[in-house]
Amino acid sequence: MGERTLAIIKPDAVKKRVIGDIIQRYEAAGLNPVAARMVHMSKAVAEEFYAVHRDRPFFGSLIAHMCSGPTVILVLEGNDAVKVNRELMGATDPLKAEPGTIRALHGASIEANAVHGSDCHETATVEIAYFFPDMV
Ligand code: ADP
Ligand code: MG
To answer: What is the pTM of this model?
Structure first.
């Protein structure tokens, strides 16, 4: 049934009340939600999820943002789901994201950029197992 990827609607987008708009865009792009959870991340959970960025200068601030309110975490399934979702999201910096992408529409800054999406198939497998251990 196609590929799976992990998406997170970040605290800035939840506060902006665009959960429904973002999920509608996933569905319209052929990315079908097959699992979902609403999670207010603890520091430990966010730090482990973003461990690859541990040495980056923005790490502390990124973790603070991810823990600043609830998130919506989804597993999306469809053909080429990882790539389709990355295209739908747009570039990390909303100012550089293609018009019409989720980040161009809803991102507030390079940090508060509305959504997370797995960057490759292998990462998706690890990220899905982290938040949905029963799915693997
Ligand atoms: P992406 O989410 O597009 O895969 P990265 O994996 O490079 O981007 O970064 C993870 C997250 O860290 C970004 O989505 C963003 O929230 C934050 N981030 C990335 N680069 C910066 C930066 N230069 N300053 C502040 N936050 C950043
Ligand atoms: Mg990334």
So the answer is: 0.98
